[in-house]
Amino acid sequence: xxxxxxWLIMLTxxxxxxxxxxxxxxxxxxxxxAVGIDQSEEGITVTLQVFKASGAGSDTQIDPSKxxxxxxxxxxxxxxxxxxxxxxxxxxxxxxxxxxxxxxGSQVSFDDPNKLLGYFIKNKDNYLGVSxxxxxxxxxxxxxxxxxxxxxxxxxxxxxxxxxxxxxxTVFSDMLHFINSMxxxxxxxxxxxxxxxQLSTQDxxxxxxxxxxxxxxxxxxxxxxxxQNNADSSQSESSSESGxxxxxxxxxxxxxxxxxxxxxxxxxEGSQAAExxxxxxxxxxxxxxxxxxxxxxxxxxxxxxLTDHMKETVVNTQVDGKQIGVTVKKRSVKNKLVxxxxxxxxxxxxxxxxxxxxxxxxxxxxxNLKESVSRKIKKDCKAAADKAFYEYGTDCFNCYRxxxxxxxxxxxxxxxxxxxxxxIIDFETTVKCYIK
Length: 436
Hints:
nine-stranded mixed sheet; four-stranded mixed sheet
């Protein structure tokens, strides 16, 4: 029995060795970090950020002081053909197992998501949790901006997107979620819109403060001013020391040459690169395979509340005639669909914790604070429903899933004409606040 088992193992190893005669070595692969897809009359333009394993001027292959990626772009009639052109130009096989971002240009057609992302769906190395976003203009613009910023775009991009989502300022959208949303009855989905923001020198030196936040405690202001004065005095002392001024100037010059220039030259290009930032200020609403419009930050927060994707956010509201901002954390969100007066009501019960401090509690009445926060959340939810559901006619709230669950017969009756069913759906939101 043992001998037969050993022979079986040897036979398996022989078969595996013969089967892997076309195995690709790691040195023959090009590691893709981010993919941009644009569509025009000329065809499909694919822009890739590819990892560069060699760094000039460094003892190791990876030079942390320089951008270890390069951008390659090609246009063809199909996505697969454009990817083949990129492989031919690099002389290496593309490996997308490390890909973290897919950016779609604003002119991309969403009629057939399987065709649009077919290359990634059929590729066994692809990660289905890769983030999918839309560019305000072109995806190629986004890919190139991150390269000039002197950092690996995909790594930095993922951190930016995660921070926006954790703060409730953008929607959740990975590849699997996007494809499933596009397979709904009306092919509805919401994608974060990424754009390039140009900052002037004045904006960098004097960053704007939030207009809707107000300082409550005068003593805290005095402490901030005193700490700032101490910091300024310590900086003046350190700058007066001999030897440290040279190192400080070197650090400034190295920061100015983050985009890859030498320390002595290229300061103008370095400052221009530093003025470009990536930001997410709105989201695109897709319905019926077409771009319907956009929703702003408040409407995004309302959408996240209604779809139970909100974790924690800052609510800006008025209490006792003063504009304040408080951090609100989700406690629970429950969605259900009920019949009421021959209509279907999408009911959402939201419980939140208001994270505050003693300064706010002593300055405002607790009941007024709860009422104000509750009113603001309900206002955002109503704005999201009015814009995405009623104006754009898209089901970004998974109403059809709730109808299928609670009223399967109604779902079957209107499965071919879901637009008629949308006209009898109302939204009702209740919010309970707890101070913690």
